[in-house]
Amino acid sequence: MEIAKGIGAALKSIVDYHGIDEGLIQKIVFDALVWSSLHGLVVGDRNVQRSGQLPGVGMVHAPFALLPMPFPESHWKQACELAPVFNELIDRVSLDGKFLQDSLSRTKKVDAFTSKLLDIHSKILEMNKKEEIRLGLHRSDYMLDEKTKLLLQIELNTISSSFPGLGCLVTDLHRTLLNYYGEGLGLDSKRIPRNTAVGQFAEALAKAWTEYNNPRAVAMVVVQTEEHNMKTLAEIDREGKLLSDGTLLVDGQAVAVVYFRAGYAPTDYPSESEWRARLLMEQSSAIKCPSISYHLAGTKKIQQELAKPNVLERFLENKEDIAKLQKCFAGLWSLDDSEITRKAIEKPELFVMKPQREGGGNNIYGDDVKETLLRLQKEGSEENAAYILMQRIFPTVSSTFLMRDGICHKDHAISELGVYSAYLRNKENVIMNDQCGYLMRTKISTSNEGGVAAGFAVLDSIYLT
User: Fold this and answer.
1) Is there a catalytic annotation at residue 427?
2) Which of 108, 116, 175, 300 is catalytic?
3) Burial class (CB in 10 A: 0-12, 13-18, 19+), 146
4) Which of the residues 5, 394, 410, 439 could staple to 418 if both were Cys, CB 3.0 to 4.6 A apart?
5) What three-state secondary structure class fits 197?
6) pLDDT tens, residue by residue, 319-369
7) Which of 155, 274, 282, 416 is catalytic?
8) Distance CA 425, CA 432 (A)
9) For the chain, how long is the longest CA-to-CA vector?
């Protein structure tokens, strides 16, 4: 009990936000904005028409918290220790094609996007194609529940695990600011853990390229249509070709590694062209990050299936590892569970309803949970298989300063910790299974969603307490 009280006190605030001199705040804001401009903590400004069309035109600082968010060191260590275990779990789940197909079979009937992904997966299974070299760049997201003081997993991202680059920069920004202003604020920059996500992700991609063992082959990033830093799915469909030995050629170049920055949302596949490109890549010998099986292993439904009793034992032998994972699982249920559905209708504020989607802005909260469940019951269709129910986590609310569009706002906020990890395997040889830095996202406490790119949150770092 005393430990729980200590954690709660530590999380409340590391700084007396009401007592900070306004002049000091403005100095920190100015220095933070200058640092962001000099070090590339910037994104395209959607308000500028030419942004994204010409390099350096229409840039604005990424949204960030002015000071780091307190976080208990014991829970930080717990999240780091979980990373390699989740990596191993995802790899083993990905190899069990029957488990993936069976678990998502009802979802397939009512969710066209998941159905298309499963169709590609089925074709790969029919080919009896083995992914001998497997690369995963993952991010497991957590919140620290105020009432139970438990670190609970929100989701595990296996595709396009965003913000390792900007997340590292925010960590560097906060360490720099505390080197200058920390003494006056009573804060020590050494309490902010170093963030090596972008370097370790790059190292994993480079090691995968080496394992492919073709020095003339390239690494290819699959991007959305408004981005210009590599190939879109439509371009790959036009320019892609599969050689008889499985080599993927795009625009005449052999491809060793495919990194999917796009492909996680239905909007990334506006026509059959994009689906043809995805299948072409899956059929090839190129190392996919993620492969179709890794992609499916990261879906919400699989997360819910893995939380069922005795399911982890299907994939993992180590009882300590199983116990570690189970400790961080929040309540997760299928909508087939009539008792939980009834409770969610009675107290919708205690639940979140999640579809099989990535990218933020898709979840259902509050009275909308009740209305959606009642509608599904009335219709009696199988559409309920498109969703899962999850226990709503209530983290500690803290005061913080949020920076967006050059303006500093003081507000009450909650945070979500994401821990990056990399996994690389060639047949039986595990080359890399590492925790790779972190992402802290902070949002105002009244906001349900937490996506930075979607406009709900800001980038942050952690201050160990």
Assistant:
1) no
2) 300
3) middle
4) 439
5) helix
6) 999 999 999 999 999 888 889 999 999 999 999 998 887 766 688 999 999
7) 155
8) 7
9) 69
